[in-house]
Write a structure and sequence with these properties.
The chain is mostly beta strands. It has a single domain (about 25-190), classed as Porin, CATH 2.40.160.20. About 10% of the residues lie in helices and about 65% in strands. It has one helix at about 1-20; strands spanning about 25-40, 45-65, 70-85, 95-110, 115-125, 135-150, 155-170, 175-190. Strands 1-2-3-4-5-6-7-8 form an eight-stranded antiparallel beta barrel. The protein is elongated, with a radius of gyration of 22 Å.
């Protein structure tokens, strides 16, 4: 019994300080984006203008070291898309709504006390039905930001770039893929 007790006691002495160093962070944010469709278009095909794009979301960070965290959460992105047909014989213009829900799987690295970079793959799901190419798939995101802590609270700003559907769930001919440049701002709580 004594032989078994020593390794268990040693394990508890090692794991207890590690657990007290584990930090978690929850954040909520809003953002605006400048977005456009990129890719090979058809000659004489319709043009797409993305307008009024915004996003809201929730982030959860699990710190694995003092400066490195795994970041995930849920992001909702919405925009109006103006579709203009080619002008032969008459040009038609119509608007459609594009909605995408995303789950990022980012690494978040903090340097100094006020700055961070984050990035990695993103799972995107387009739930709006429209005539646009599907943006559901695996995308990528990269950002750099600044944060300010007061007690356990934090305010932050996170400029970023996102490319949707880098690996689409449904491949289409002449696939138009969404690219967004955005800025997120929000508040977080560290516990």
């Amino acid at each position: 019994m004594k032989f078994f007790l020593h390794p268990v006691l040693l394990f508890l002495l090692i794991i207890n300080p590690l657990q007290s160093q584990t930090q978690n962070e929850a954040k909520i944010y809003v953002g605006v984006t400048q977005s456009s469709f990129e890719g090979e278009g058809l000659d004489g095909g319709a043009s797409f203008d993305v307008e009024n794009a915004y996003e809201v979301g929730f982030k959860y960070l699990l710190y694995v070291t003092e400066n490195l965290a795994l970041e995930s959460g849920l992001n909702y992105w919405k925009a109006d898309v103006k579709i203009s047909s080619s002008p032969m014989p008459d040009q038609t213009i119509r608007n459609e709504i594009l909605e995408i829900t995303s789950i990022p799987i980012f690494a978040n690295f903090t340097f100094s006390d006020y700055f961070f970079i984050n990035g990695g793959p993103v799972m995107d799901f387009q739930f709006s039905e429209n005539d646009l190419d599907s943006q559901s798939g695996i995308g990528v995101g990269l950002g750099a930001g600044a944060k300010y802590h007061f007690n356990n609270f934090q305010i932050f700003i996170n400029p970023n770039i996102r490319r949707y559907s880098v690996i689409p769930f449904e491949e289409e001919n002449f696939h138009q893929k969404l690219t967004s440049f955005g800025v997120q701002a929000g508040i977080g709580y560290r516990f």
